[in-house]
Design brief:
Largest sheet: 10 strands, mixed
Number of helices: 12
Structural class: alpha/beta
Helix content: 40-55%
Shape: globular
Amino acid sequence: MAKRTLPLLKRLLRSNLHSLTPTRSVTYMPRPGDGTPRAVTLIPGDGIGPLVTGAVEQVMDAMHAPIYFERYEVHGDMKSVPPEVMESIRKNKVCLKGGLRTPVGGGVSSLNMQLRKELDLYASLVHCFNLKGLPTRHENVDIVVIRENTEGEYSGLEHEVVPGVVESLKVMTKFCSERIAKYAFEYAYLNNRKVVSAVHKANIMKLADGLFLESCREVASKYPGIKYNEIIVDNCCMQLVSKPEQFDVMVTPNLYGNLVANTAAGIAGGTGVMPGGNVGADHAVFEQGASAGNVGNEKILQQKKANPVALFLSSAMMLRHLQFPSFADRLETAVKRVIASGQYMTKDLGGNCTTQEITDAVLANLD
């Protein structure tokens, strides 16, 4: 009997040991060289920019993320982006930047617009979503605003016809409207999104916004698995503040997208926590998603209480763009844990923490 039970005991022991061994799921198989550290152009920018980009640098160092930064000083009052900075972005293909202050009036052009036009960063993406631990008026908000970035009212074609009369041109092209629509539907398809909403004012701007809608409809017909609808921009704003959970992916012309993205960010928790980026066929620039407050004010700067969360999450988007998904997941998870705890909030979120205290909390929560 003892001889007969011995093999049985051995099999049971082997089986139990096997069940205690941690199993590994099918792993990501990189191409040779995918793990090589990548150079990223860093533009700290104006105002709170150096503070929040400095926080990102600390986190990247702590994670041993496979990137290194090439830092350049660029400020919003410069006449243009220095050639060596443009050369660096073209070489590295990826840039992380803080806010650049855009002078109001005075004929000074926006450096943000120069970057977008020269690098053809035609798609702006802002992800607005509820974060656990951050109380908001609305729940289940998860909106992606995809905005055409190179034309429309931002074409910069303005002139004074006669003293006291200024003409500003809104330029819309079939090419740009079609490619932003394609980007929006491709994004929805790859991210398992169900609905794409085109935001417009074609009831008034029948030719310009009519061309945009026509392009969206043509592209929508090629994606039968994704629901497509259209909404006038004024109704869109009303619906956003009353029932934002109905929206999924929104595709917009340039000006409307800026307004819609900042509104959606405010609804979901504030511009200080919403990530975003600007992407083209060859280059990408990642920054705080919604532009409102991205350079802060003098008081926040002096107290060193700028919110770094938006740029942390934008950096996670950047890591995923660079095909370093595990590092992106680690960073996102750590940030979400910190917010969920409810203990670490900057002033814009109802707390009183400094930028460094938020950064230290994120570092402590890295796996």
